[in-house]
Amino acid sequence: MTQRIVAVTAGLSVPSSTRLLTDRIVSATRELASARGDQVQVGRGHELQIDVVELRDLAQDIAAHLVTRFPSDGLAQVLEDVSTADGLIVVTPTFAGSYSGLFKSFFDLVEPTALAGTPVLLAATGGTARHSLMLDHAMRPLFAYLQAEPLATGVFAATDDFADPGLGRRIERAARQLVAAVGPNSRTIYPTAASEAVPARQDAGRDDLGPVPDFRDLLFGKV
Amino acid sequence: MEFGIFTVGDVTPDPTTGRTPTEAERIQAMVTIAKKAEEVGLDVFATGEHHNPPFVPSSPTTMLGFLAAQTSTLKLSTSTTLITTNDPVKIAEDFAMLQHLSAGRVDLMMGRGNTGPVYPWFGQDIREGINLAVENYHLLRRLWREEVVDWSGKFRTPLQGFTSTPRPLDGVPPFVWHGSIRSTEIAEQAAFYGDGFFHNNIFWPLRHTRQMVQLYRERYEHHGHGRADQAIVGLGGQVFMRENSQDAVREFRPYFDEAPVYGHGPSMEDFTTQTPLTVGSPQQVIERYLTMRDAVGDYQRQLFLMDHAGLPLKTVLEQLDMLGEQVVPVLRKEFDALRPAGVPAHAPTHAELIAAGDDSANAHVLPSVTVQQAATDDALQMKEA
User: Fold this and answer.
1) Closest partner CB to A213 (pick from B185, B208, B275)
2) pLDDT, tens digit (0-9, with 9 covering 90-100), for B145-191
3) A53: Cβ–Cβ under 8 A, 6 or more apart, which residues?
């Protein structure tokens, strides 16, 4: 069985410091997982796959989806990969004190409950350390809204931090938490409240539509 | 197969001249376009319902009643009638009146609308959208089929001994479609009652349309109205044509680039690949729309959006000429030849509903399978007791 992590990175320049931070987190996660693969974190016989998504490459598709309300084939695949991942690494530059517009636009297109219970490693870059609380003031509420599970440690890298060994330590701590969270049975299963439960049927051939209620239940309220 | 046009009724500046028509001009243009549709041999004209600028059609039955007097064969319909925010009693009355005035040339399409503030403007809560559609439509069905209605529900003042007037023409309520793009509950609702299902796919890729229609067809059969391939399906469409396809592309591009909804978004090339929008020669339109059947099966109604994005009236009328003379006759012939026996060629007409009598799902408030099942359930419960 393969556990799958998707790293979503929203840097705009090529190469970007945001991508640099993403790559460091990805490789730290990979090393931890392989070093401990036979023991606790990922479990025996489990492999970890990490894919990186550059939102810059999808910028036009994201804008088009916002105005047309449907995704291009390529963007649909990325949204599906992100929605079904066992864990996420999300990395954005700090713009005007918050995540970038591109980053937010992408997560605006994720179905509101698709990330429920998904562990998320929050990370961001910025010009100076004065912005570092944006992790907790901006990113954490966004992923709380999406019902995801942001890890305790976020990673903020100001420009100066790229020369500071402290950044490596924070990356390792966050990666360790991510690897621990992305075990075979780690994804938290949220029981649906009885009041929200809709009798569901799932038929082959139209999986995209999700569960469909029986109209008799809608009409007569036999829920 | 029925072919027709549906209009949003937007008042949009012509991007090539910068001129915005007045509301009076736009409304008269809609009337002219509807009459032209009949003249070129189309079957259906449907108008949207909107309650905010830049749209003019807030009062569909007023417009359709006027058109009833100006036309003789055209079926008058809606795209859509807001079942969520209109009082179902007023819908029952308005459309029964329209049936009488048009000698039965009317059907209508239920929808929930796409403008959030319409809910509070009409005193409703958008979070109840689906529940409003369920409760209001069931009341509408009863008002048309039961002479005297006692009713109480969650969203409307109760009714005691109420009779909706006028009664439906010949005692036969108009055929109803349910339009939905994403909500599976609405496809299920259409299937439950044996009504028509319209997927307005003009801004959506065909892979999504296929799934919604397939769901409706399966559930239509499940609820006991016939085979899945006999369910009544309608699709939207959008075309711009010139004899030479390059001329069509050149002429339509400024309208595409500035259009409400998709303007300033994807390129016209991407959008024509991903959605049913076809910009080219009449032959290209024919080839493209023949593939709709491959995706959703034999279907009964094809409506085209022809008069939006600020296109001048003269251009729209030219488009309708091409649609009626060159495109629809070929599509009609091809679809008719491919359709197996036993699959309806079009949505039932008033005369057909009269002839079908009690055999028609349209004659009943609840599907007979559900009624029988409920009776069996009751009998079982009594036996167990």
Assistant:
1) B185
2) 999 999 999 999 999 999 999 999 999 999 999 999 999 999 999 99
3) A6, A7, A8, A9, A78, A81, A82
* pLDDT value, residue B370: 81
Contact at CB, B264 and A67, closer than 8 angstroms? yes
Q: d(Cα B107, Cα A58) in Å, to the nearest integer?
A: 43
- Terminal Cα-to-Cα distance of chain A (whole angstroms): 36
List chain A residues with CB under 8 Å of B266. Answer: 64, 67-68, 72
Contact A91, A9 (CB under 8 A): yes
Residue from the list B131, B215, B266 with its beta carbon closest to the beta carbon of A209: B215
Are A126 and A222 in a shared domain? no
Is B83 a residue whose pLDDT tops 90? Answer: yes
Asked if A70 and A108 sit in the same domain, the reply is yes
- Fold exhibited by the domain B2-384: TIM Barrel (3.20.20)
pLDDT of the residue at A44:
52
| Residues A210, A161 share a domain | no
- Residue in chain B closest to A199 (alpha carbons) equals B185
Same domain (yes/no): A173, A203: no
Domain shared by A205 and A123, yes or no: no
Provide ipTM, 2 decimals: 0.77
- Residues in A 200-219 with any Cβ partner in B closer than 8 A: 203, 205-206, 208-210, 212-216, 218-219
Helix axes B88-101, B60-70, angle to 10 degrees: 10
pLDDT in tens, A157-207: 999 999 899 999 999 999 999 999 987 555 444 433 433 434 444 444 556
Q: Do B261 and A67 touch (CB under 8 A)?
A: yes
Q: Is A63 on the interface with B (CB under 8 A)?
A: yes
Question: What does the pLDDT look like over B93-145, one tens digit per residue?
Answer: 999 999 999 999 999 999 998 888 999 999 999 999 999 999 999 999 999 99
pLDDT tens digit sequence for B212-232: 999 999 999 999 999 999 999
Closest to B318 (Cα-Cα) out of B233, B368, B243 = B243
Domain ranges of chain B: 2-384
Full residue range of the structural domain in which residue A218 is found: 194-223
The model's pLDDT over A31-83, given as tens digits with 9 standing for 90+, comes to 988 776 544 344 455 678 999 999 999 999 999 999 888 888 899 999 999 99
Measuring CA to CA, how many Å separate B272 from each of A24, B205, B275?
A: 41, 10, 5
d(CA B92, CA B204): 31
Average pLDDT, chain B: 95
**What distance in Å separates the CA atoms of residue A190 and residue A196, rounded to the nearest whole number?**
12
Q: Specify the number of domains making up chain A.
A: 2
Q: How many CB pairs under 8 A join A and B?
A: 72
> Are A23 and A36 in the same domain?
yes
Residue B38 C-alpha, separation from nearest chain A C-alpha, in angstroms: 32
* Structure-block tokens of residue A75: 């963007």
**Could you read off the pLDDT of A4-35 as tens digits, one per residue?**
999 999 999 888 999 999 999 999 999 988 77
Residues A181 and A102 in one domain: yes
> Which distant-in-sequence residues (6+ apart) come within 8 Å of A74 by Cβ?
A58, A61
Q: Does residue A200 share a domain with residue A128?
A: no
User: What CATH number does the domain containing A62 carry?
Assistant: 3.40.50.360
Contacts of B185 in chain A (CB under 8 A): 212-213, 215, 218
A72 vs chain B: nearest CA distance in angstroms?
A: 8
